[in-house]
Structures are given as C-alpha cells and as structure tokens.
Amino acid sequence: MRIILTLFLALASFVSATAQTTHLYAERDGEKLYLDHYEAVNTQGSRPCVVFAFGGAFARGARADEGYIPYFKALTEAGYDVVSIDYRKRLAKGIDMAGLKGAVIAMKEAVEFAAEDMLSATACVLKNAEQWNINPKHIVACGSSAGAIAALQAENMICNSDTRAAVLGDFNYGGVVSFAGAIFSVSGKPQWQKNPCPVMLFHGNADSNVPYNKASAFGVGFYGSEFLVGQFDKMNTSYWFYSAQYRDHSMAGDPMYVNIEEVKAFINRVVVKGEKLQIVQSVADAKHPKTKTRFSVKEYLGSNYNK
C-alpha cells in the first residue's frame, strides 16, 4: 500500500510540475502508435532527450506505466526531455515453443517491429526537435527489458544501414541506455558495419529472462550485455557496463531508481560533453547469494512466456 501511495504521489507531483503532451507518431498494421513527451523542468535552450521503450517481453506493458514515472521525473528534473513510446507488441498472444522455426520467426518479427517503431518515434522527435527545443545530437535511446532490446536493435540497424533506419537519414543516437537488454540475431554474433554510439548497459548475471552473455543455437539467439561489451571493447568505442553479480531480471527496473546518478553521469559526460569512457562496474551484494547463472534457450523463453 505504501509503494502504491508513493507512486501516486510521485505521479501527481510529476504531472503538476512537467508539461506533458501526447502525439500520434505512426500507424502500423491498423494500430495507432503514440508517444508521451515530458518537457524538462526549469531549463532554457536545446536539451538532451531520452526516448524510452517499456518492457514486457513484446507481449505486454504500456508507455505510461506508473512504475516508470519516478524515472521520468528524475530525468526531467535533471534537464532532459523524456519521450515514452508505444510499440507493437507482436507476442501478445504468446509464443509456441513447440515449433522451433515458427518461434524464431515470431521472435525476430517482434524484435524488429519494436526496433522499427523506436526508429519511427525518433524520427518524430527529430521532426519536432526545433519546436520542442531538443538537441538532435543528444538524443538517447533507452529501454527496459524488451524495450532495451528494441533500443539496442535500433542502434544496430542504424550501424548496419538497415533500410528501416533510412527514416532517420544520417542521424545516429548520442547514446543508448539499456536496462537488461540484448540484440537478437539469426546469423550468428551481431555485426557492426559502423561503430555504435556510446552505450550504457545494466545487467545481472543471473538473469533468466534476457541473457547476460548469450543464448543461441545454430547462430540464432540473443546476445546480451556482457557479449556486446566484448564487441565494443574490440571496436574501442565508449561504453559503461554495470554488471550485478547474482542479480536476476530486477536489473530491468531497479537501476532506474537506484542508479539514476550513473545514468545522468553517462548522459552528461559521454553524450553531452563527448568524453570517451570504457567503464566496467562489477558489483556484488550479500543480499543476493550465489545462484544459477546459466540457462538454456528454452528456460529463457519459459521465464518470459510461462510455458
């Protein structure tokens, strides 16, 4: 009850202090997709903007979920606009794990559609950047769980000149912030024709929903934060990896509140000021004792879709 009251008070305070407008940014497959634009508090001039995608295994979730409001509030109070987006939830009816080929096709479609919607929402932000006083060079793609996958996948599409990224022209994000995310591939490890923008990743190594390292078979699967950091390190690009020992999928949400100062530092130092950083923070907490850290592809799917 106390948690609900706290969230309600945060929401009420946030709405009263922040200008928020809702915009239709696309219509796909007969579905209207909206974004909520929250304007930074007490700022002047062009501002950074965080484009956020919610979590929910591509099956559930909402852009205005009250659980995200304290995070949005912290960002707007720090001087950043927030754009929280809809995207198509292609796995709303679940996924049939009995048919491997069908499951792969369904997952690929779900991930790529969400990433495509992230790109389209970003195009809407760019179109309105002057009117909204947003600096196009300081737009950050961000997401939780499935939303983090969408953000990382969108960045990968940009770097590989995917036709669906053409809507952005020669734009690239100023950064990506991923809360327990990964990249999905059907052709082995993710490829990068161009170096990615700076990326911040939070992940627990006992996450049974989204792989911390990777979960793949015959080149098909998800490549998680630890795997991606290895690629970024070889490419000598900027990254900030917050690795939590024996933490589960709670890292898809907890850092939005517990680690907000690190998120703001990443945006200020790396995205805005252009510092090149390669940081690995490995943390352990006695409250989280040793537990299983390796899972099969079937276990990952079962954790998300209860089968």
Describe the protein's architecture and organization:
By secondary structure, the chain is α/β, with parallel strands linked by helices. It has helices at 2-17, 69-77, 100-127, 129-132, 146-159, 225-235, 255-258, 260-272, 297-305; strands at residues 20-28, 31-38, 47-53, 81-85, 134-144, 175-179, 182-185, 199-204, 214-217, 220-224, 239-244, 278-283. A nine-stranded mixed β-sheet has the order 1-2-4-3-5-6-8-11-12, with helices on both faces. The protein has a three-stranded antiparallel β-sheet with strand order 7-10-9.
SSE layout:
Elements (H helix, E strand, L loop, with lengths): L1 H16 L2 E9 L2 E8 L8 E7 L15 H9 L3 E5 L14 H28 L1 H4 L1 E11 L1 H14 L15 E5 L2 E4 L13 E6 L9 E4 L2 E5 H11 L3 E6 L10 H4 L1 H13 L5 E6 L13 H9 L2
Parallel strand pairs: 3-4, 3-5, 5-6, 6-8, 8-11, 11-12
Antiparallel strand pairs: 1-2, 2-4, 7-10, 9-10
Helix pairs in contact: 1-2, 3-5
Tags for this model:
globular, nine-stranded mixed sheet, 35% helix, alpha/beta, 307 residues
Give the termini separation: 31 Å
| Derived structural class | alpha/beta
What proportion of the residues form beta strands (DSSP E)?
A: 15-25%
Uncertain regions: pLDDT < 50 for 5+ in a row?
1-5
Overall outline: globular
Give the mean pLDDT. 91
> What portion of residues is helical?
25-40%
Q: Give the topology string: H per helix, E per strand.
A: HEEEHEHHEHEEEEEHEHHEH
Q: DSSP helix count?
A: 9
What is the C-alpha radius of gyration, as a whole number of Å? 18 Å
Brief sketch in words of this structure:
The protein has 9 helices and 12 strands. With 307 residues, it is an alpha/beta fold. It starts with a helix and ends with a helix.
